[in-house]
Amino acid sequence: MLVLAIAGCSSRPAIPVSDTQTLVMEGAILAAGIRASSPTLSQRDGTAVAISSLYNEKQHPVQLYYRFYWYDDKGLEIHPAEKVQMITLEAASGKQIQSTLFNPDASKVRLFLSLRSEL
Q1: In a domain, 8, yes or no
Q2: Helices (runs of H) and strands (runs of E) counted in the chain
Q3: pLDDT in tens, 69-100
Q4: d(C-alpha 101, C-alpha 70), whole Å
Q5: Within a domain: residue 56?
Q6: Is the N or C terminus of the chain more exposed, i.e. has fewer CB atoms within 10 Å?
Q7: Is residue 52's pLDDT more than 70?
Q8: Shortest CA distance to 48 belongs to which of 78, 74, 21, 19?
Q9: What is the reported pTM?
Q10: Would you say residue 85 lies in a domain?
Q11: Enclosing domain of residue 56
């Protein structure tokens, strides 16, 4: 019985993030009425471009923060990281956001959305 208690204390909770998970939103984003598409990634002459569409379903403006994170083929994050960006979505309207990276090693992108500026 004591062994089980010790084993249970030694494990720590973790939230796994899959390589295929390209869009990460905090729960408050959904509650605020924001829909978002996973970013599409294209390559042009060593330049990577990621684009995502955002839509505000509510009848009031919503301010949100976002950051694109770039990764190479091995899944390693490419630095320096992009700065957090802010966007205001007007009531019942949509916008596209994009990120461009001049790095031929960029092969994956992940978009984080939040109502807070700390990403």
Answers
A1: no
A2: 2, 8
A3: 999 999 899 998 899 999 999 999 999 999 99
A4: 8
A5: yes
A6: N
A7: yes
A8: 78
A9: 0.81
A10: yes
A11: 16-114
E-assigned strands of the chain? 23-25, 34-36, 40-44, 47-56, 62-71, 85-89, 94-102, 108-114
Asked whether residue 48 carries a pLDDT value surpassing 90, the answer given is yes
Determine the average pLDDT of the residues in 42-53: 93
- In this structure, the number of other CB atoms found within 10 A of the CB of residue 52 comes to 21
Q: What is the CATH number of the domain that holds 74?
A: 2.60.40.3230
Which tokens in the block code for residue 96? Answer: 């596209």
Tell me the C-alpha distance between 53 and 40, whole Å. 10
b/e per residue, 98-119, with b = 16+ CB within 10 A?
A: ebebeeeebbbbbbbbbbeeeb
End-to-end CA distance of the chain: 41
Give the three-class secondary structure for 108.
Answer: strand
Residue 4 lies in a domain: no
Mean pLDDT of the chain: 86
Alpha-carbon span 11 to 14, nearest angstrom: 9
Q: By the 8 A CB rule, do 36 and 25 touch?
A: yes
